[in-house]
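User: quick one, fold this
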Amino acid sequence: MLAYTYVEQGRFELRDKPRPTLQDGRDAIVRVTLGSICTSDLHIKHGSVPRAVPGVTVGHEMVGVVEEVGSDVRTVRPGDRVTVNVETFCGECFFCRHGYVNNCTDPNGGWALGCRIDGGQAEYVRVPYADQGLDRIPDGVGDEQALFVGDVLATGFWAARISDITPDDTVLILGAGPTGICTLLCVRLKQPRRIIVCEPSAERRRFVREHYPEVLLTMPDECEAFVRAQGGHGGADVVLEVAGTETSFRLAWQCARPNAVVTVVALYDRPQVLPLPEMYGKNLTFKTGGVDGCDCAEILRLIAAGQIDTTPLITHRFPLARIDEAYRLFEQKADGVMKVAIF
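Assistant:
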C-alpha cells in the first residue's frame, strides 16, 4: 500500500509498505477514506518532535471504514464508518479514568499515530485500543464533515471546555488558522458576550469575516489596545493562544485582564519565556498542554445536529499519489489554503 513516510529530518517520501495487520486483540484495521495534513506533521518533518520515529508513516487526521477488528474489540465492527482519535489511550489507567487521555501511561499512550507508530497518510492504518480510539460516524454525516473530529476539532473543543467560558466573557483567540477556527467554533457554543480573533494574515481575516461575521477582528500590532477597549475590565476574560509564535505567546498574557484564564493550545518550535516580573499582580491562571481527545462522540453529535461545521476549512483536495504537492501547498500557505483533504 502507499504510505507517506518520515525518512529523516526535512524529508518525507511516499513509499510502498505492507498493509498493517492486527497485533493485539484490541486493535482494528481501518481503510482510510479521507485524511488531512496537520501543522504537527510539519513539526515532525523539521525535527521539532524528538519522539517521532524515522520510518514511521505520518498522519493523524483521518476517517475511514473498519476492515478488521481484534477479538477483544466491542464498540465497532467491520463496515463501520469511523473517526480516528489522534491519541492512543487504554481507558483504564489513572489518567484515562480522569479524562486526561493525553497522559495515558500505556507505552503507546498519547500522540502515537503518525509519530511513534504508523499513522494514516496511507491506504490503511492499525488503530490500537480501538474501543477508545474509534468513534462511529452518525448516519447523514459525511467524511468531510467528520474529518477533523479526532484531532484539530477535538483540540478546539478541549480548549473551550477547560477555559471556563461564561456568557459574560470577552474571549480572545490568537490565531485564525485551522486550529484557531476549530477553537472559534467551539467557543461559539459557549455563547460568550463577544469573541475577538487576532490574526496577521489578511486572507485568514477575510475567511473569518466571510464565515463568522459576528466575530471582532484585530491584528497583532493593535491587539492589546483593541482588546482593552472591547473587554471593559482591562483586557479579555479568557485568552486562547492557538498560533504558536513568540508574538502570540506574549500577547496571550498581555491582553488578559487581571485574574483571567489563559489557555495555551499551541505547539511551539522552541521554548517560550514567561516574564513573571512583568506579570506580577495580574494573577493569571494558565492552562496548557496537549489535547485530551475524549469528547469525540459528543462532537459528532453536535455535527449531526448542525451545531458545528468545519467543511469550509477544506480549501483543497488531493489524491494520496499527489501528497507531496499537497504538503508544499500547505507548508507554504499558498493559494489561500486552510486545510487539505487527502483521498
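User: anything notable?
Assistant: The mean pLDDT is 95.
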